[in-house]
């Protein structure tokens, strides 16, 4: 087994919040300028560390939302977690111009390396964040790999990056996006609200014969359900990469 | 914001900078939590792919020594081995810790009772192709179990059932889910996450999350 080349020690870096934008009522994107950032692959994450004046500190992992453009910028989209001490700080308290400690990039498995096969992205809620990095990276290099995103959200207002996705569906050849609404649909939507089903993945995914690279990210129950359906439909389990978060602070 | 105000705000305290305005309203640190961990009462799931479903009649656990000698147990044979109830804290590299979890399983000391080996390292294998490396001494002397019950119930597939390794003194990715074998190695080799940049040993108390930590 050959060792994958990985950088040496991941040291903590002090980034500066260069800009911030509200994505939804419960999510905020931080645009961070990170000194000596080595670059990252779409799908990788960073560890963020907050430290209080008395030395108490808290760490969390956040997926990187942006594709690397060699400009020193890294974007994180933070979804508010109920009672989350870190997410509430990053959304409510951290102002533009302020420092934020992070280290990374982390992860060498849940990444898209611009390989030739078609890609199926399956997102539940803020699980879309690392998948958006893949869509953006493909857009940056004008990738021709057929990409399909199936994106499950509670209501239309909960969709992250909705305007950008609509623009990219128009401008990025070979990108399709299908929304699944679990609580409330837009007006005139052809189906009642409901969870992702076998039919959704069968109709809006790729056939297993196309041997797509599949990335599934979201809450545990969502990822378990989606991955089980994909395997039942005949997808090779070895081509289905998953990333799960537990809905915890 | 000007550079000067950044400098004032960004003063250092030991190794880390202060996060302006962060008070840590919900302090989750306590002495039984390793550095950088927070407490959860859920049981989050971390897996790289779909959850494999392993029928018990096909389940097998095999220890392979460095000469290729094999020691195997079927599910009924494994169930016949003496089991222990274990209460322990677990620590995931993704930062959550769960305290006082209860497991039932077979200690590795029992499984290694008749295994002759001079090798110091192991690669633990799971159904679905997962691998992780653990030194042999970290598996013996009451430090590790192949567990098949969690909280008094059969271990659920998403948590590694029908049986998973439990090595609670290392980050939980070392506790291979869907475990089906241990291979003895003369030299340490990286497993699945270790190949992807995670630490070769993974001691949570020394915060060995990533390569070089």
Describe this entry's structure for a reader.
- The complex is a heterodimer of chains A (249) and B (213).
- Helices cover 21% and strands 33% of the residues of chain A.
- Chain A has 249 residues and is an alpha/beta fold.
- Chain A has a 6-stranded antiparallel sheet, covered by helices on one side.
- In chain A, strand 1 (13-24) and strand 2 form a beta hairpin.
- Chain A is globular and about 55 Å long.
- Chain B has a domain at 58-206: Sulfite Oxidase, Chain A, domain 2 (Alpha-Beta Complex).
- In chain B, strands 3, 6, 7, 10, 11 and 12 form a 6-stranded mixed sheet that branches.
- In chain B, strand 10 (145-150) and strand 11 form a beta hairpin.
- Chain B is built from 4 helices and 13 strands.
- Chain B is mainly beta.
- Chain B has helices at residues 3-9, 75-79, 108-111, 192-195, and strands spanning 12-13, 16-17, 38-39, 60-64, 70-74, 84-91, 96-107, 121-126, 131-135, 145-150, 153-154, 164-166, 179-185.
- The model of chain B is unreliable at 1-14 (pLDDT under 50).
- Helix content of chain B is 9%, strand content 31%.
- Classes of the chains: A alpha/beta (249), B mainly beta (213).
- At the A-B interface, strand 3, strand 4, helix 1, strand 6 and helix 5 of A face helix 1, strand 2 and helix 4 of B.
- Chain B: This is Molybdopterin-binding protein.
- Chain B: Residues 49-193 form the Oxidoreductase molybdopterin-binding domain.
